[in-house]
Amino acid sequence: MKELIGPDLRHKGTKKFTPVSLASSLSFSVSFLLSVLIVAWLSYQTVEREVKAIFLEQLSMSLPRSVKMLKVWESDMKAKVQALTSTPEIQKHSLELRKAYDSSKGETGEVFNKEKLKALRSDLNSTLKNFGFLGFVLLDETGFSFAASEDAAMGHRKIVDRLGKRFIDLAILGNTIITLPFNSEVEILDRRGILRNDWPNLLIATPVLSLKGEFIGVLALRLRPETVFSHIFEIERTGKTGEIFAFNESGIIISKSRFEEQLKVMGLIPDKLETPSILNLSIRDPGVNLTKRGRIPPSSIEKPFTRMALSALAGENGYDLDGYRDYRGVKVVGAWAWLPEFGFGIASEMDYEEAFSFLNKLKIWFYILFSFLLAASTRALYMSWQREKAHASMMQAKEDAEKANAAKTEFLARMSHELRTPLNAILGFAQLLGMNNERNLSEVQKDNVEHVLKGGNHLLILVNDVLDLSRIEAGEFSVKMESLELGPLLDEALRLIKPLAENHEIKIECLAPKGNNLKVQGDHTRIVQVLINLLSNAIKYNREQGSVTISQEQKQEDRVRIRITDTGHGIPKENQSEIFEPFSRLNIDKGTVDGVGIGLSITQKLISLMGGAISLKSEVGKGSCFTIELLLAKP
Fold it and tell me: Which comes out higher in pLDDT, residue 324 or 32?
């Protein structure tokens, strides 16, 4: 057996709070913010370097892949054209046309041998259509076209006038040449099948030799650049704004731009139906973001080349991840290369905003975080100042409250003792008066004595409860822990509460096993007191002809549960948190039920002192169930 002393619940005062000085708080806040700022910025810089390195690698790799695809396409087209010019029929018809051209040259300078031309067109056109070519031109060594798929392409040197004679000279030497895109000298079909003047095209030219190896002419096959040439660059573009494009030595785009519709709105290319960007767009910096400014104003001053174009046209390969304006005036990042073997440059660009959207979001979050920390620090400094300002009055109010609470506890204890002395005398003399048969009290007098005893006993119970509560709060209450059989405890509580149940016509039933020898650890008097408090409440707050049951359930290995269930009106959920507060009766039956509302508070504190717990489940209209847990005695 051992004795447990309850915890000291009195307000003995707390250690005075010494606020941090405003200067110290300010110094700490500034140091903290600077530390966070430096660490966050260094972290951001590290992430930025890594992201840019990865993006540059992806950006740079797209250029070699495009060049590789371009070489594969070039090799394939050259092979097809060379195979075509090696067929005996093509050689035969070309030779006949050349002889007819040579024989008539002195007279008209033109060849209109319809039958021989018709045969060559018949041999070539179906094959050219399968390969995606628009037509052909057969040129002599001076660039004069003496045969073609269209009459308008014959009898002149317009191709040489536009491209120069160098590609003819190279073809005569046995090379297969692919020209850069240029505006066609004759009407050709666009991608919608409409004849267009000065429409972009390119030529694949190769020499045609006779069976004896004699030079006949240069066969040039016409092709729209957007069908194949531009498509090669479109394959590698990524995202919503990424594009790869090619440009000639004059800084003119020779592949299709991704932003053709925008360019028409901006006025950078003619706003006409199906006007291509190829050969109509110069890679120059407009100086402003035209996607936000709208149509570019007319200006006689030629804009400078973009940062990328200046470098590439100087024969340099490079990149820029810091950002520069493209031909739309939009800030972009890019990588570029000049390809001397092709005679043009290529660039891979993407809008800066899209390329580094993650970094931009990270930077925004960094600013938000820093702003939040700055606001929080400012708020903390303000609160520290307010705390220092209010500290003196707060401490005084706290001390006053502690003194008032201690005075209340001492008053309750003193008054309980003072009330018990005269109350015991009143009860003693009333009991003697009721037991004195010699005085032959009348029935009315006996009834009055009974009322005195009843009221006195009730008052004594209230005084004892108040005294117990004050002792518990003062930390002067103790319980004697010992091993007790649960069965006799329940029987004793039921025996003591039975008269109250009968008086209220409440049925009370114990569902615990008969001959219960389960042993618990606790104070005999206090366990009975707890049971009587709970049972008396279950009876007093019950319905007419209601019932109360006691049940027992073992929980785990070291505790046992005892449930006291009634069929009363129940307690609303919003009031259940107040049920264990001292002097709280929740306005329930104040005029008809005795008590001041401290029984459940004492019950909870007694259970806690014995190492147990108490809980409540209640539903309005159905009743309440109080569950107490007691420690099982060790065997």
Answer: 324
